[in-house]
Design brief:
Chain B: This is Putative mRNA 3-end processing factor. Chain A has 531 residues and is α+β, with helices and mostly antiparallel strands. Chain A has 19 helices and 21 strands. In chain A, strands 13, 14, 15, 16, 17, 18 and 21 form a 7-stranded antiparallel β-sheet that branches. Chain B has 322 residues and is an alpha/beta fold. Chain B has a 7-stranded mixed β-sheet, with helices on one face. Chain B has a 6-stranded parallel β-sheet with strand order 13-12-14-11-15-16. Chain B has a 5-stranded mixed β-sheet with strand order 1-2-3-4-5. Classes of the chains: A alpha+beta (531), B alpha/beta (322).
């Protein structure tokens, strides 16, 4: 447990991604089985101990510390587990030897609601404050230390010098402490196989098209729908839906899983029914509507009725036992077109290809994407196998040109990583009326990229010289600088005072030449809403 | 704004210029300039002179020495163990004894003499770390952490954010006690105070300015700067620094994270919870008055231990960087 606690502390205080990777990789390499597997599960939300709740911790503390002092401390620290780790009294007499991670997992798993508090107290008595913090975080499953599943897998690959794609593929279907996975990566055993499990397979991704012109004899075109990329997998009576990052989001979309009953792995865009994207024919609501459905653990009937989800399919990876990934796109497309009529039309449709005689005509069609509120066009090489990641020359995304608006810089905050110490996170706004008639600037968005390093230095200096107020880490400026902001689309929002929210805003140009009162008005931005 | 001593018509640690000020120690929020008469230890007066460039009205009082104030009040200065020159002030009037601790700690500190408990009727204590979560570990452990980080990162430099008065010199002195003989590099804002410490007899070893050095010269070295410089552009001149901060606040992870601290060092010149409560019990006053800090928790402790106590709401003291 000491090593695990030291790892947690180091991860908490290490801002850089690469340094986090190195810390994790070292831990995974140097820690014996099964501790490292349990630790990995703890870091990736793979553990659950129903016997231990946050209330268990509170109750234990109340028996040992004055409740008023506990509450004052809790309010100051802002985190129950950390407060408890700091306040836990040292045991009378000698502290026992610290438990291993495996011991902790074994004891917590065996505990029930009645014995849970006693078991946890016994473990806390054997640890110092760092160890107690790690234990409490592990026991309640709320790590929140900035380690995504993807980062953990990347670290695993780095630790044993294996490919992260392989790790992704073998990881799914494995349960903690992942002994076969470590046996494969660390000791060269056969990779774990689980053909009877609904496993995630890493996605094939697209490059931005930039200034290329492609021959449509070699490339097929499809619309680029603005939803979330998903993979549906059905094996042995079970269906799972995976997001771009490989997270299992089946529970969020309960209407979809039962609709796929054919053994398959399918690639598509998850959307909500509507007429925003591409009108009635397009049949999909805006991303805003889909957002109502994202991130929910339970889904109400009203949600299902108001925002019915479906998947627009564009590829087939596996079908009825056959792996189609090595086959060219046009053959897979044929398999997919034959499959779609066998699926429930409520839940699935086919991503149509765009017919155009040449690239110039396609460019014209793409121009109209704005009016249809479609994100852009995808181009897929007709002979491309389905390969993991972003391989040059196979798939391209060709987004429509961004919208532009002139905004005024309002607030700035210091960035992180290589931008730490520079003011690099910007909030900007538009006038809510005539600036000469007493209008105010209301914030409309935030951006932290789109500028060069040189421009960043200039901006940092501007902000330091034009600060009128400070709120903690945030500086308010004198609102004199104009940004030309590029963004993909703009939507109604109840969450923002201005009533609008932009998608993918970035700084396109710094308009130091333009006076602030000539920046755009909110009405101009609102006129671009296509909700 | 400080504590007023009515019968003697003077103030302790006033936040505004007054005719007569009794100053416990040299931190800027306690030792403001511009008083008519400033009564303090010679070391505190030297620190104030360095800062305000004047010694007008300075009246030195050595540790253990008693001086007479108007109105039949006497004041005796005793070590507080906080920083060089820091003192508790014992006030006596008509048979009543009041002790004002100023800021204090009970841990050993190679840069100043140790706190001594003084029997009194009213004990006016600080409460900067007046929460039971605050426990300062032995400083040797923290220094060992610091040296281990340096050892493990020969290409980087360990940059420690530390208060210019007291904390910086204590960290340096503790490094020397731990046998660290290499040069220690200083941000310009720390140089004068370190020099003054040396003049006052606190040896700090080989200290060198950072200004003008190439990045490579600082690889594998230890450097100190004021906390405000840690995340400033200034730190970019150092080779990929490991940002460390020496402060009692580092006990709380979020506090360290908010300041982007990679290596939190829990080193404080204030009493932690157990020192605060142990000291009240040891002094055993008839009444405890609690000033600047987290009064509510210490008040609660007094209540639980049947001790008469009240909070004095003093404004103007800053403790965020300690």
């Amino acid at each position: 447990m000491d090593r695990f606690a030291a790892l947690i502390d180091a991860l908490v205080f290490t801002p850089s991604r690469n340094a986090k990777l190195a810390l994790l990789a070292t831990y995974l390499r140097d820690t014996p089985d099964p501790d490292r597997g349990w630790a990995l599960a703890a870091l990736t939300d793979g553990l659950n101990f129903p016997a231990i709740k946050a209330s268990t911790i509170r109750a234990l503390l109340m028996e040992r510390v004055d409740p008023v002092l506990f509450q004052i401390s809790r309010d100051y620290v802002g985190d129950t587990a950390e407060t408890a780790s700091l306040l836990w009294p040292d045991p009378l007499g000698e502290r026992g030897p610290p438990p291993t991670v495996s011991e902790v997992v074994a004891e917590l798993s065996a505990a029930n609601r009645n014995t849970g508090p006693r078991v946890l107290a016994g473990l806390l008595d054997r640890l110092d404050s760092s160890g107690r913090y790690a234990l409490l975080k592990l026991a309640t499953g709320a790590m929140r230390i900035g380690i995504s599943a993807r980062l953990a897998k990347t670290a695993f690959a780095q630790a044993f010098d294996v490919s992260v794609d392989d790790v992704e593929e073998y990881w799914h279907g494995q349960a903690p402490p992942y002994l076969p996975l470590f046996a494969w990566a660390a000791h060269g055993a056969e990779p774990p196989r689980a053909d009877d499990l609904p496993l995630f397979r890493p996605f094939m991704l697209a490059h931005p098209l930039e200034d290329l012109e492609l021959d449509l004899a070699d490339y097929a075109a499809e619309w680029k729908w603005d939803g979330i990329r998903v993979q549906l997998v059905h094996v042995a009576g079970e269906t799972r839906i995976y997001s771009r990052s490989g997270d299992d989001i089946t529970a969020t979309f309960p209407e979809l899983a039962p609709a796929l009953a054919i053994p398959a792995a399918l690639d598509g865009e998850l959307l909500v029914r509507g007429s925003h994207q591409g009108g009635n024919e397009g049949g999909a609501a805006s991303f805003n509507a889909l957002q109502q459905r994202l991130g929910r653990k339970t889904v109400s009937k009203a949600m299902l009725a108001d925002y019915p989800a479906f998947v627009r399919l564009y590829d087939v990876l596996v079908l009825e036992g056959e792996d189609h990934r090595p086959r060219p796109w046009n053959e897979r497309r044929g398999v997919l077109e034959a499959l779609v009529p066998r699926l429930d039309p409520q839940c699935f449709d086919l991503s149509a290809t765009i017919e155009a005689k040449d690239f110039a005509e396609l460019a014209g069609i793409r121009e109209r994407a704005r009016d249809d509120a479609i994100e852009g066009v995808m181009l897929k090489r007709r002979d491309s196998p389905y390969v993991t990641g972003r391989k040059t020359g196979l798939w391209y995304k060709w987004k429509r040109d961004p919208l532009l608006i002139d905004c005024v810089l309002m607030y700035a905050q210091r960035g992180s990583g290589k931008r730490s110490s520079f003011y690099s996170d910007f909030t900007f706004g538009c006038w809510n009326g005539d600036p000469d008639a007493g209008a105010e600037i209301l914030p409309v968005g935030k951006a932290y990229f789109g500028f060069t390093d040189e421009e960043l230095k200039w901006l940092d200096r501007h902000i330091r010289q034009h600060t009128v107020n400070r709120f903690g880490p945030v500086r308010e400026t004198d609102k004199s600088l104009v940004f030309e902001v590029a963004f993909d689309s703009v939507h109604h929002s109840k969450r923002h005072k201005s009533g609008v929210a932009m998608r993918f805003p970035r700084i396109n140009r710094i308009r130091a030449d333009k006076p602030a009162h000539e920046a755009d008005r909110l009405d101009t931005l609102k006129a671009l809403i296509r909700d | 704004m400080g504590i007023r001593v009515l019968p003697a018509d003077c103030w302790i640690d006033p936040a505004r210029p007054v005719d007569t000020a009794l100053v416990t120690h040299g931190h800027a929020d306690h030792a403001r300039g511009g008083h008519g008469t400033t009564i303090a230890t010679p070391q505190t007066l030297a620190i104030m002179q360095l800062r305000y460039q004047t010694d007008a009205g300075a009246v030195p009082v050595a540790y253990g020495e008693t001086i007479d104030l108007p109105g039949g009040v006497t004041a005796t200065y005793q070590p507080a163990g906080h920083v060089l020159g820091s003192a508790q002030i014992l006030l006596e009037h008509a048979g009543e004894r009041v002790v004002v601790t100023g800021d204090y700690k009970r841990r050993s500190d190679p840069t100043c003499p140790a706190f001594e408990p003084i029997a009194c009727d009213v004990f006016i204590t600080e409460a900067t770390f007046g929460l039971p979560i605050f426990h300062h570990p032995p400083i040797g452990d923290e220094i060992a952490k610091l040296l281990a980080a340096r050892e493990a990162n020969p290409d980087r430099c360990v940059l420690i954010g530390a208060y210019a008065l007291g904390k910086a010199q204590r960290v340096i002195a503790e490094l020397r006690l731990a046998g660290y003989g290499e040069p220690i590099y200083l941000h310009g804002a720390l140089e004068r105070m370190c020099r003054l410490y040396e003049e006052l007899g606190v040896g700090l070893g080989d200290l060198r300015p950072i200004a003008g050095l190439p990045k490579a010269a600082l690889q594998g070295q230890i450097a100190l700067c004021p906390p405000s410089a840690l995340s400033d552009r200034w730190s970019r001149r150092l080779p990929d620094p490991i940002t460390a901060m020496a402060s009692g606040w580092m006990r709380v992870r979020q506090r360290a994270r908010q300041r982007n601290v990679e290596l939190p060092l829990i080193i404080s010149d204030h009493a932690d919870w157990s020192e605060l409560t142990r000291t009240i019990a040891e002094v055993d006053p008839a009444e405890t008055w609690i000033t600047h800090g987290r009064e509510d928790a210490l008040l609660r402790w007094c209540e639980l231990n049947q001790r008469k106590a009240r909070a004095l709401a003093l404004v103007g003291y800053e403790d965020e960087d300690d």
